Amino acid sequence: MQEAELHDLSDDADYAASQQQGSASMMRCDTGKRSSSSEPEGAEIVYLKDNVTIHPTQFASERISGRLKLIKQGSSLFMTWIPYKGQSTNVRLSEKDRNLYTIRAVPFADVKSIRRHTPTLGWQYIIVVLSSGLAFPPLYFYNGGVREFLATVKQHVFLVRSGEDANVFLVNDFRNPLQRTLSSLELPRAVSIASVPSTPVSVGESTSHENEGGTDVGVRVGSASIPQYNGRQRQKLFRETHTNGFGPFERRNTNQSALDYSHQPSDDDEEVPVQSPVAPDPLEFDKLSLVWGKPRQPPLGLEEWTTFLDSEGRVVDSNALRKRIFYGGVEHKLRKEVWAILLGYHTYESTYAEREYQRSIKKTEYKTIKNQWQSISPEQAKRFTKFRERKGLIEKDVVRTDSSLTFYDGDDNPNVNLLGDILLTYSFYNFDLGYCQGMSDLLSPILFVVEDESESFWCFVALMERLGPNFNRDQNGMHSQLFALSKLVELLDSPLHNYFKQNDCLNYFFCFRWILIQFKRELEYEKTMRLWEVLWTHYLSEHLLLYVCVAILKHYRGKIIGDEMDFDTLLKFINELSGQIDLDAILRDAEALCICAGENGAACIPPGTPPSLPVDNGLFYSQQDEVL
To answer: Which end of the chain lies in a sparser environment, N or C, as judged by fewer CB atoms within 10 Å?
Structure first.
């Protein structure tokens, strides 16, 4: 299907460039089949499509367009997607960033399923899910071509439509671990299985990219992002390339990973019940050189808070303030004022008077937005299905949100009503995103601290600017974070990563709830607020939450490996950690891991991964909202 008129690409430089780069090559490939001297001997391109695009973030200026190919050699089919060379529409996306998303040499023997999305408005896209449980980012077809892609795949591999979802095409039989994950998380509507990919994003790693009309089929064999099956076929089809950009720590982990993988028993080996020793933690050998996390401090109090402000209320040194909060948090009576600044609702440079003026202006604006749904008559509501459905979901969720707290306890609790009003107003403020389960968990502590409807709403809006992608229909935000988490564990504890790999736990779905609602259900309420204000400082990293996840996994690595936990056992174990996490100790470990990982850790996290803050005024692309 062609893109709808709603999406005007006239100002999309990436798209314009891809149109110019792709038009000639598509004329050469009318039949969809050709052999090329640039391909290895015996390889045949059976499908080629230009202007296939990845959306790393919600901003149009950061889209990456490229060429999608299906390549046949012998009885094997491979898929590649190579970004166009020289796209420079956004200076923040370097060539290295673009290459992070390159998909190279993926044999369909490694593909579990293909999910097709054909919305009424917007572009068609597919999500390719691997047998490892990882998935590539959504591939958007600006000029159509999904039907032809699937038809070509079906000609060369066994492809069958799923009986549960007509938009899912199975390449191999598989079990759906995400369904088990979500049901055990008690977030039944956090993700819609029928409309959301069931795996986190995996992105190919590469040091080269496709030029205009040229065909580059180099591949980095051994990339942890691509399962290493059918390696003999892959080596015949694609030449092996190596990068020299690894530091010694990264190189050591890569070698260890390859060594561990090579010792996995084959299917033909007889299984002998031998208790294996737990692989040592690689960081144990580096303690002398590791800068461990500093002791936690008492929370920031009122008297100390005033020392960070000038006479008019401006924060004099924002870095010093963020560092202080990072190590100690904030006293509860100060949170209302400090959280608004940490979240970006008020700027560090604002004065007392400016903040008061903004509150007044925003209160009026909030009333205007709220009036949009309050003014809907019963007759209008009968003809407004989306409104009725969202309102019903919110009403069901808010009565169950933190009902054990006195603040939200009891029938007809006015604070519960405020919670529902704010969420419904937000669904009108951000109608594309709307409401998803889990949002009430994020709003609850804000309303508890701020105790003002309008102020809570705007603080929640500021938080959702960071975490909104977690709830996007294509789940790009969650995919990016789960993928980054897997890469960080691989970097910081390769034996544990290899254990997950060998036990079909590489999708990291057991950490899904941790990331989605920021440990809200794992910690006591006060500790949740303490963790959040530490995360909001962005002091060491805006992705400190991922290092917190790694720290917890490393803390329990001995039990995980020693008890030989499979996915279901691990998921149950992780969920039972609720209320048992020592926050101060984990924050110290997370700090140490972040320092240890350094630039290598930052390189594991794709650009635009939440909670990255938007830094330009790019337009959000519309997502087709279906009630969960």
So the answer is: N
